[in-house]
Structure formats: C-alpha cells, structure tokens
Design a protein that fits this description.
Layout (H helix, E strand, L loop, with lengths): L5 H8 L2 H8 L17 H13 L2 H13 L2 H28 L6 H8 L6 H34 L6 H8 L1
Helix pairs in contact: 4-5, 6-7, 7-8
Subcellular location: Membrane
Keywords: Membrane, Transmembrane, Transmembrane helix
Membrane topology: Multi-pass membrane protein
C-alpha cells in the first residue's frame, strides 16, 4: 500500500491556524452572564426531601383511603408509616455517627459483613440500581396518569397511554 503524500497529511498535521483561532476567540460568557452556583443548605435539603418523598404522597392517600374506607384509619396508617420512616432515620443517624466513613449503606455493609469480601455490598448495589430505576419508572407512570386526567377527564383510563407519557 503506497504511503500518502505529505500534501495529504499537511492539513492534519498543521494546527497553528486552529491554535490562533482559539487564542482570539471571545469567551462565551462575559461578566454577569455567567451562571452562579448558588445552592445553600436549604435548597440542597429541599432537593433531597423531594427525592425522598417522590410521587407517592400524591397517590398514596387516595389509595389507602380506598383500601381502608375510613378517614381516621387512613391517618393512623400514615402515622404508623411515619414512625417506621423515623426509626429508619434514627438507624442511619446512629450508623453515621458510629462509622464515619464515606459510602453510605455500602460502606456499612462492607464493615459489618467482611467475608466473603464485597459480596453483600455488591448485591446491595445491584438491588439499589434496580430499585431506584423502577422508582423513576413508577413516578413517570403516575405523571402520565395525571396528564391523562388533565387532558381527557376522569373517565378515561388507559395504562398504555400512561406508559406512553412516562417515556
């Protein structure tokens, strides 16, 4: 196979023009046009709270009321759920103060279950990826149900349309 001529390689080898163009370019954002990174403690906490609460707070009360049939019993069930969530919060607070390492749940599992090495941490990470992605999918389906309700009214019910909006 013949070697290419230097004339063919010259445009690829010369980059002086490109360097000159970059040196003389105006910056894309000048002065006050730059976006400022302003996320304080309150904004960061609200992002975390919105991630934790999710779409369940909008769907759950009606579903539990339909299943139990009583407003008082519905409140009792929600209070029990709040106590369970609070106990989980206190558990993670205790783990965080006992084992101040990075990694969250995976770090705690690595510390507690050392043999076989990383097995439980790996399984938890796999489960966590599957669980969180299914949570995002279910939130999309809930969103699709609300879009269907807003566009077509309460009588229209189509699981395929809800899934379509979720995509």
């Amino acid at each position: 196979m013949p070697d290419p001529d230097n004339e063919q390689l010259e445009p690829m080898l010369r980059h002086d023009d490109f360097v000159e163009q970059i040196e003389h370019m105006e910056p894309l954002a000048v002065g006050d046009q730059r976006l400022e990174r302003k996320i304080g403690w309150i904004q960061g906490a609200m992002v975390n709270v919105s991630y934790i609460i999710g779409a369940g707070i909008f769907v759950g009360p009606a579903l539990t009321l339909q299943l139990v049939g009583s407003g008082g019993m519905n409140l009792i069930i929600w209070l029990i759920g709040a106590l369970v969530a609070l106990s989980g919060t206190y558990t993670f607070m205790e783990l965080g103060t006992m084992l101040p390492r990075s990694g969250g749940e995976v770090g705690y599992l690595e510390y507690c279950y050392r043999k076989p090495k990383y097995l439980l941490a790996y399984l938890f990470t796999y489960w966590s990826l599957m669980n969180r992605s299914s949570g995002v999918a279910s939130q999309g389906i809930v969103f699709g149900g609300y879009i269907n309700y807003a566009l077509f009214g309460s009588t229209y019910k189509s699981n395929w349309a809800e899934r379509g909006w979720a995509c």
